[in-house]
UniProtKB/TrEMBL annotation:
Matches recorded under Pfam families: MFS_1
Organism of origin: Halomonas rhizosphaerae
Residue stretches making up the Major facilitator superfamily (MFS) profile domain: 8-377
UniProt-recorded name of the protein: MFS transporter
Transmembrane segments: 43-62, 74-93, 99-121, 133-153, 159-180, 201-225, 237-255, 267-285, 291-310, 322-345, 357-374
Database matches in InterPro entries: MFS, MFS_dom, MFS_trans_sf, MFS_YcaD-like
Keywords from the named record: Membrane, Transmembrane, Transmembrane helix
Lineage: Bacteria, Pseudomonadati, Pseudomonadota, Gammaproteobacteria, Oceanospirillales
Length: 464
């Protein structure tokens, strides 16, 4: 990766890291404050759900503003709006007001993510995009870990201190983006596929994205409530939440590499079963703080790995040219699942007690295991027609005109007949074609559209 590319990616990643520190513990602060005010889990669930509803709306609408005003000004607008909504929450403590502010805050936050992701995707080519996106996820999760560790410090200050710190961080995140050169990458608008089209195309990808939204939103919104009601102080709650995000950060790459080497449907089945086992362990094992921290670390690694593996599976089944639209559609499905999670899970906690959160995790994992297993039986992983084997280097024309013993014998006989007739023989010399064929030769040569100019020049790729 060149220094120029790193320099171009540094500003958006630094801005995301600064904003992510505050955004990482904002959901925890809101849950703890509402619970301390005596609000029911249902009310807490709806306020938390407002943020994810805003995410879903922003995933559909924010690209229009980005296309109109560009990356840098769009980032400044979205980050400033995040700061305003957070500071207003420190002034007004009514649940209905927090619902509206969280809705607007979610809409603005997904706009920030859209700016950063599109900036990184447009900055580099396919050879470095994976590394750029890896840096993006590491920055996001590292900021979340640091933010959760700051929870105890800011809450100890009392009053609106937590909201003031988060608002200041959101405002400061604009500086790296505003101080870079005015050259920013272009973004092309791509409409997402409809949910019905996505379900037809990749049911496993859709269900994996939806289930991931349900689980991740429950972790951020309701796990702090569970931890507080078990008697943990605020600083310990922040540490436990940091452990969850740390598990997501450290285990995501090994799980992703594992899914690259095996059938992703099988990996999804095992992730669902793993989350179910971890939930059962939390419910039935005798708990100490260290055991709980270890289980939450593993739960974070499993829950946060669902979405990338599901998207990878969907990309394996997607037709050519539909990857961008499919990705946006799955992001919308994930946001819908996140919006529905708190209203669905919080009543379970009201009926079954605080442990109902892990009952919900367990049933969700079990459902995903059954669904993914059924889909794998209906549509198993594709098997290659033939294993890859290297072939003798030749040009595209050479691949078409494969020389056999019969052709050689026929050519010799033809030359012998011409010599007997007294005609001057004409020798046809086949030379490798290194450029496009002439119009009258286009019907005899096969060209691979995926062949790079370098490969065409070397003439070292042959595909039947």
């Amino acid at each position: 990766m060149s220094r120029q590319l790193l320099a171009m990616a540094l500003a958006p990643l630094l801005g995301l890291f600064i904003l992510g520190i505050g955004n990482g513990f904002l959901a925890t602060v809101i849950t703890l404050r509402l619970d301390a005010a005596g609000e029911s889990p249902v009310v807490i669930g709806w306020v938390s759900s407002a943020y994810f509803i805003g995410l879903a709306l922003g995933a559909m609408l924010n690209d229009r503003l980005l296309l109109r005003i560009g990356h840098i000004r769009a980032y400044g607008s979205f980050a400033s709006l995040v700061a305003v909504t957070v500071l207003l929450q420190g002034l007004v403590a009514e649940p209905w007001a927090w619902f509206a502010l969280r809705l607007i805050g979610g809409w603005a936050t997904v706009g920030v993510y859209l700016v950063i992701e599109s900036w990184l995707l447009a900055s580099g080519d396919a050879r470095v995009r994976g590394r750029l996106l890896a840096l993006y996820m590491i920055s996001l999760y590292a900021a979340g870990v640091l933010g959760q560790l700051l929870l105890g410090v800011t809450e100890a200050m009392g009053g609106a201190a937590s909201f003031m710190v988060i608002g200041m961080l959101a405002s400061l995140s604009v500086l790296p983006m505003a101080m870079i050169p005015r050259v920013s990458p272009l973004i092309e608008k791509a409409e997402p596929l409809s949910p019905l089209r996505l379900i037809t195309l990749t049911p496993t990808g859709v269900m994996g994205s939806f289930g991931s939204g349900l689980a991740v939103a429950a972790v951020y919104s309701l796990l702090p409530l569970y931890l507080q009601r078990t008697g943990l102080p605020v600083d310990r709650i922040g540490q436990m939440m940091a452990v969850v995000v740390l598990g997501a950060m450290l285990l995501q790459y090994p799980v992703g590499r594992w899914s690259d080497r095996h059938d992703r449907q099988l990996v999804l089945i095992l992730i669902g079963a793993f989350c179910t086992l971890i939930s059962a362990a939390v419910l039935w094992l005798p708990m100490t703080s260290w055991i709980l921290a270890g289980l939450l670390f593993l739960l974070g690694g499993g829950v946060f790995s669902l979405y990338p593996v599901a998207v990878g599976h969907a990309a394996d089944r997607a037709p050519a040219g539909a990857l961008v639209r499919m990705s946006q559609g799955l992001l919308l499905i994930n946001a819908i699942g996140s919006a529905l999670s708190p209203p669905l899970v919080s009543p379970v906690m009201s009926l079954m007690g605080d442990a109902g959160l892990f009952w919900a995790f367990g049933f969700l994992g079990l459902f995903l295991v059954v669904f993914f297993g059924w889909r794998r039986s209906v549509r198993p992983a594709p098997v290659p027609v033939a294993p890859f084997s290297p072939s003798t280097p030749m040009s595209a024309a050479g691949a078409e005109l494969a020389v056999t013993q019969e052709l050689v014998q026929g050519a010799l006989e033809h030359e012998h007949v011409e010599d007997l007739s007294g005609a001057v023989p004409e020798v046809a010399v086949a030379e490798p074609l290194v450029g496009p064929p002439a119009p009258d030769e286009a019907h005899i040569a096969y060209y691979d559209d995926e062949q790079t100019p370098e490969e065409a020049a070397l003439g070292n790729i042959s595909r039947p």
